[in-house]
Amino acid sequence: FFRKTMSAAPTPKALPGFMKPYVGNRHLFSFLKKHEATNPVIANCNSVLNIAPTFKWALSIVPLMGLFSGNPPVEKLDMGQTVALFSTGVVWSFYAVIIRPQWMVSLADLPKEITMDQLRAAGEAHGITDTKIVQNGGKNSAVFAFADADKAAGLLKQGTIKVGETSLATGTSGLNWFNKMLPGSRALFMVNCALAVVHGWNLRRAYVHKKSQSA
């Protein structure tokens, strides 16, 4: 089911024996590997180099949206989870700075793709054409994405905005530039900085709330 790949790198001795054949394998599912050459979406989704950071991005993006929407309210924050995620972000940010070499340029492909999808959706909600989005370097659509995320989400539910192959193509169009400019270590640093900043801000919110309650 999973593809076994022998790596040229030394196999860690601490690993259990049944895991050693998988060292160096970045493909999640072996049966999808034959489709990777013809389908870049499958190639990205079947790579652990993309899926792993995507899970970590989710730990930052969901709370970040909560900061804008005010939900959950500060009094309902899970402090244990917030402290743990903040600490994880800080530690991994330092780790991303010191590891060498780390040039897995595909590390942040899926988050960038998702981001571009949402920018396009927000842009369409305001009647912005693809040409204008490209000409403005995405700046206007980025502003609209934050300012009217709720409006865009509502239009998505109604089916007014068609986010399918066209928006996916828009999202992937900028990946070549990002891949050249964003080595894996930098991407790893960014995602963990985001994790630390978002949950650090939640800790600050909780502190200010507690201080105002005790005053």
UniProtKB/TrEMBL annotation:
Coiled-coil intervals, chain numbering: none
Record-level GO BP terms: pyruvate import into mitochondria
Primary location class: mitochondrion
Localization in the cell: Mitochondrion inner membrane
UniProt GO cellular component terms: mitochondrial inner membrane
The keyword Cell division belongs to this UniProt entry's keyword annotation: no
Keyword Mitochondrion: yes
Keywords in alphabetical order: Membrane, Mitochondrion, Mitochondrion inner membrane, Transmembrane, Transmembrane helix, Transport
Domain of life: Eukaryota
Membrane topology of this protein: Multi-pass membrane protein
Cited function: Mediates the uptake of pyruvate into mitochondria.
Homology family: Belongs to the mitochondrial pyruvate carrier (MPC) (TC 2.A.105) family.
Protein name as it appears in the record: Mitochondrial pyruvate carrier
